[in-house]
Amino acid sequence: MKFLYIVILSLLSLQFFAQEKPDYGKIGVRIADESSDYYYPKLFGRYIAADRSLTVNDFRYLYYGFTFQAAYVPYADSEYRGNLAVFFDKKEINEEDLQQMIKYGNLILKTLPFDLRALQLLDYAYYHSGNRKKSDDAEFKRKMIIKAILSTGTGLSKNSGLHVIDDLHKFDLLAEKKLRYNGVQRIANNSCEFMGVFENDKNIRGMYFNIGRLYQVSAERLKGQ
After folding, report:
1. Within a 13 Å sphere around the CA of 162, how many CA atoms are in the beta-carbon half?
2. What gap in Å lies between CA 202 and CA 94, rounded to an integer?
3. E strands within the chain?
4. Among 141, 84, 59, 75, which residue's Cα sits nearest to residue 111?
5. Which of 97, 146, 95, 94 is nearest to 120 (CA)?
């Protein structure tokens, strides 16, 4: 079954539409419209249920639409992330460890529903504890979030930066592309950051990430909007 979903996700990538920057104004209007297919409570319910009929476009509305929700806090992190650190240093993971990973992974997702690291962890923990359905659900969500982000640009120039709503997602996307961050980070323009990477076979010196939405929401919250 796990192999089947990997095949399905690969086929989805063949239907990938042209890269397009998120239109936050349009997203905000549609997710607030109760008659829209993108009405956020309804769409988010489908996400929680890991509805396989959700498309990359649906995930664009889910991911970027989250920034319009009161639950979204720019630059927030989970208090439970530290509880998982111990497991990354263990040579062997037992059943009790798996259950703890599941517990804390789900706690992270309660406040950060698009946390790629928690989803990857749950994919692993559920798979090795024998719950293939929940493992596949976590993998589906993570892969589709990544596809949604990659649909926003190439990441190879400041005018085509990948739009992220979570600062950690810059590092997650580098890892997804098998690029290692080299510690170089600089502002490219008023909404884009450059992240340098070590020498690689792709001849990529670094990637650009558009974090303008984090800035915007932070500013709006400070003004009390």
Report:
1. 27
2. 38
3. 162-163, 181-187, 192-197, 206-210
4. 75
5. 146
Q: CA-to-CA distance for 104 and 16, rounded, in angstroms?
A: 33
pLDDT at 72: 97
Q: Residue with structure tokens 């109760």?
A: 34
The residues, ordered by sequence, that sit 6+ positions from 135 with a Cβ below 8 Å of its Cβ are: 2, 122, 123, 124, 126, 127
Averaged pLDDT, 129-147: 98
Task: Quote the distance between the C-alpha of residue 99 and its chain's center.
Answer: 23
Q: What percent of the chain clears pLDDT 90, i.e. is strictly above it?
A: 85
One-letter amino acid at 2 equals K
The secondary structure of residue 161, as a DSSP letter, is P
Question: What does pTM read for this prediction?
Answer: 0.91
Q: How confident is the model at residue 3 (pLDDT cuts 50, 70, 90)?
A: very low
Retrieve residue 199's tokens: 């020498």
* Among 45, 46, 5, CA closest to 140: 5
- Delimit the domains of the chain by residue range: 2-150, 158-223
Mean per-residue pLDDT, 106-118: 97
Contact 144, 56 (CB under 8 A): yes
- Euclidean distance between the first and the last CA atom of the chain, given in angstroms as a whole number: 47
pLDDT in tens, 209-218: 999 999 999 9
Q: Write the CB contacts of 178 (distance below 8 Å, at least 6 apart in sequence).
A: 200
For 177-194, give the DSSP string.
Answer: TT--EEEEEEE-SSSEEE
Q: Are 106 and 119 in contact (CB under 8 A)?
A: no
